[in-house]
Amino acid sequence: MEWTSVIAIYVLFWVISAFIILPFGIRSYAETGAEMVRGQADGAPTNFKPGRVLLYTTLLATFAFVLFYFNYTNQWITVEDIDFFGSIERMGL
Q1: pLDDT in tens, 36-84
Q2: Which H or E run includes 55?
Q3: Beta-carbon contacts of residue 20 (< 8 Å; ≥ 6 apart)
Q4: For residue 25, what are the domain limits?
């Protein structure tokens, strides 16, 4: 696998992981009882910590990418393993 492919795939894993991690641990002003600022959205978080999100996102993305890469090199799960409908035979590949 080319190093540019490794970087591109890792970035994809990182972005997906960010969307998975973002909703965890967030509390709104209504949930914490804090006073809202005029013009503020009702769902705005009171305790958003970008460092925590970046750390957990990087950890999850790295773990998922390592699993992906080991599967890529060792062929634990292949296309034939997940072809439930026989698409490969119908396509003549």
Answers
A1: 888 888 888 888 899 999 999 999 999 999 999 999 999 999 888 888 8
A2: helix 50-74
A3: 60
A4: 3-91
**Dmax (CA) of the chain:** 64
Q: SS3 of 45, please? A: strand
What pTM, to 2 d.p., does this model score? Answer: 0.79
> Distance between CA atoms of 40 and 55, rounded to whole angstroms?
27
φ and ψ at residue 58, rounded to 5 degrees: -65, -40
88, 56 Cβ separation under 8 angstroms: no
Q: Which residues contact 64 (CB under 8 A, 6 or more apart)?
A: 13, 16, 17
pLDDT of residue 93: 62
User: What pLDDT band is residue 88 in, cutting at 50, 70 and 90?
Assistant: confident
Structure-block tokens of residue 60: 């999850």
Chain centre to alpha carbon of residue 70: 18
